[in-house]
Write a structure and sequence with these properties.
Number of domains: 1
Number of helices: 2
CATH topology: Glutaredoxin
Radius of gyration: 11 Å
CATH architecture: 3-Layer(aba) Sandwich
Number of strands: 4
Shape: globular
Strand order of the largest sheet: 2-1-3-4
Length: 80
């Protein structure tokens, strides 16, 4: 089973809500998800120790896009 860690800002409501959406998407793909508190404004997804996604702007990709990146990383070991 693929292991994903979501590192997120614990204070920002939008990031907390987005984290829940991404976690639900990943769990629906049979991915084990751990959520850990990060820095202010931070949101990142790490799969099996490899950074797959990090927030670089105020915008967030869809949870499905992050799920696809995690799925592809689990299959071929590549970060997107």
């Amino acid at each position: 089973m693929t292991q994903a860690t979501i590192v997120r800002c614990p204070r920002t409501l939008a990031i907390r809500n987005y984290t829940a959406e991404v976690a639900a998407t990943l769990m629906g793909q049979d991915v084990s998800v751990e959520i850990v508190d990060g820095r202010e404004g931070e949101f990142a997804v790490v799969v099996d120790g490899q950074l797959i996604f990090t927030r670089k702007s105020e915008d967030f990709p869809s949870a499905e896009r992050v799920g696809l990146a995690v799925y592809e990383a689990g299959l071929v070991g590549l970060a997107i």
